[in-house]
Each structure stands twice: as C-alpha cells, then as structure tokens.
Design a protein that fits this description.
This protein is an all-beta fold. The protein is built from no helices and 13 strands. The chain is elongated, with a radius of gyration of 22 Å.
C-alpha cells in the first residue's frame, strides 16, 4: 500500500509492503520499520526490548546502576542512579581528556558519592550528587569538571 501527499498525491510519504515492512522515504523497505533521509524523533521514550544497534554513528551507553556501589566504565555515558535504598560509592575513572559523563539521580533521599572530587567553575570541590538531581562532568586531562547540574552537589 502506498500513501501519498501533495497535489494529486504527487509525493510518496509511506509504503507498506505485503510482508509487513513499512518504509518512510523509501520505496523498498528492507526491515519492519525503515526510515530514509533523516532522523527519527521520540518525544517521550524509546523502548528496546532486546538490543539497539546503531550503524555508522556513536552509540551512547546508558547504564542504570542497581542498588549498589559502581565503578564507571570507559564506555559509560549516561549513568542513572535509580531505586536506591541507601547512599552508594561511584568510582570515576581517570578519563581521556574531553570524556563526558552524565549522572541522573531520581531518589528522594539517597546520594551518589564520588571517589574523587569534581570541580565547579568557581573551583569548589564536590564529592556527591544529592537526590533528585543530575550532573554533567567532563575530564579536562587532570580532573573532572562540572559542566552543568541541577539539584544539589555536596
């Protein structure tokens, strides 16, 4: 089935093949959902039940830390501290200059305690992210610097 838009259906917008493959911007989709020529935007959540494969682009590694201490890996990018029942220690690696990490805490009471200080723009040293906050840090070659945060750093 072909769905067209424009004057007298001049432009093909979407195609559904007999095998169930759906294509946007492509006349012969080779997967269940095939989009050509641009990104796909999800305003809310994208849920992947098995594996997310990204070809020809950098994959962002999102980690949800269980209710335990955690050592950040060099491949981590977004770290979510979720459903904790106590404070936990977070061990930051010695990064490669320019490495960026984002921590998100959705707790009402507990904090992520870092093994090294992270530094604000004014030089203030912080060692933990309080509950219900987020912090983005970057490694400058010698230490972790705060780029942006919400909530409370302590």
């Amino acid at each position: 089935h072909i769905f067209q838009v424009g004057n007298n259906g001049a432009t093909e917008a979407l195609r559904i093949l007999n095998n169930g493959n759906v294509g946007i911007g492509i006349s012969s989709p080779d997967s269940l959902f095939h989009v050509k020529g641009g990104g796909v935007y999800f305003e809310q959540n994208l849920r992947v039940s098995k594996q997310l494969k990204v070809e020809g682009a950098q994959v962002v590694n999102i980690v949800v830390i269980p209710d335990a201490d955690y050592t950040v890996l060099s491949t981590d990018y977004i770290i979510s501290c979720k459903n904790w029942t106590s404070n936990h220690n977070i061990t930051l690696p010695t990064g490669v200059t320019g490495t960026v990490l984002k921590f998100v805490s959705g707790q009402a009471v507990y904090r992520a305690v870092f093994n090294v200080s992270i530094y604000g723009a004014d030089g203030t040293a912080y060692n933990s992210l309080e509950a219900s906050g987020s912090v983005e840090i970057v490694y400058d070659g010698t230490q972790w610097q705060v780029v942006m945060f919400t909530g409370i750093l302590a």
